[in-house]
Amino acid sequence: MLPEVHGWLRRRTSSAGDWPVQDLVAAKGDTTVSVVLPARDERETVGEIVGVIRRELAPLVDELVVIDSRSTDDTARVAARAGARVHAQDEILPGLKPMDGKGEALWKSLAVTSGDVLVFADADIRNFRASLILGVLGPLLSDPTVMYAKGCYDRPLHGTPNGGGRVTELVARPLINLYWPELAGFIQPLAGEYAGRRSALERIPFLTGYAVELGLLIDLLELGGLDGLAQVDLGSREHAPQCTEALGMMSAQIMLAAWSRLERQGRISSVAPPATRLCQFRRGLEGHEVLIRDIGIGERPPMITVNP
């Protein structure tokens, strides 16, 4: 690990317990806060999450928005009944050709929120705690030089306290250490809980799909340097685990994100772009069946450049 990253770890890593709600309310001042939950088919958890935020964080959160990403269940109705303002992803900026995935939902949320600080949290978290929001808000409300704070946590899986985060350990962390060692201090670089200043988020592009988290880290590092970033230990976080096939698709999109940023930074060149089809196999009644998945990613420009 680079010496400057060791220093950053000591200086810019805190824990959720360092940021009690009363202290953050005092530090908030005139800063406005929007919480955004991107959701697709999350009716089982989104209502509880919205309820916890409304009950426990009302003095801090000025705006609570769910971006419904083409749910086939009643996620939108459940979220609205719990007290969130709900927007359908494809109805935001309807003049633009729709793109797919989580990154699209996060980018479009910038167009329907107004907070000076935005907090993003996944909508599939079980046993949601208000500290998941408080933790990532703390560095931004207490230090004007921090533009982005990312959560880290243990990932319980099948009774193992840290069995989750497989894509991080097998794909994202090796890529970061190889090509962006300044970011090697991030314990959970793909974590879905983070907060950023609108002034920064509107000035960077957003990759679509599961590429968004890695893209944000790389682009924010380039925008404001390592010391503008922070991380917060949120304890533990539990959500429904993905199947291996889904993890393969995520991994491929993260590799494409790394490729796009290396190419943009002039660190690689190619005679042809990477393929955007992933071939996987599943055993059927008559042997192995071939599954072909589209793992292509898109990119939205900085929101500040977009005319509504």
What is the topology?
Layout: H1 3-12, E1 13-15, H2 21-28, E2 33-39, H3 43-56, E3 63-68, H4 75-82, E4 85-88, H5 102-112, E5 117-120, E6 125-126, H6 131-142, E7 148-154, H7 166-179, E8 194-197, H8 198-201, E9 206-207, H9 212-224, E10 229-236, E11 238-239, H10 244-264, E12 277-284, E13 287-294, E14 299-300
Parallel strand pairs: 1-10, 2-3, 2-5, 3-4, 7-10
Antiparallel strand pairs: 5-8, 6-11, 7-8, 9-14, 12-13
Write up this protein:
- It contains 10 helices and 14 strands.
- The protein has 308 residues and is an alpha/beta fold.
- The N and C termini lie far apart (43 Å).
- Strand 2, helix 3 and strand 3 form a beta-alpha-beta unit.
- The strands form 4 sheets. An 8-stranded mixed sheet has the order 1-10-7-8-5-2-3-4, sandwiched between helices. Strands 6-11 form a two-stranded antiparallel sheet.
- Helices cover 37% and strands 22% of the residues.
**Rg over alpha carbons:** 19 Å
Low-confidence stretches at least 5 residues in length (pLDDT < 50)? none
Percentage of β-strand residues: 15-25%
Which whole number gives the mean pLDDT? 94
State the end-to-end CA separation.
43 Å
Spell out the helices and strands N to C. HEHEHEHEHEEHEHEHEHEEHEEE
Number of helices: 10
- Strand order in the sheet with the most strands: 1-10-7-8-5-2-3-4
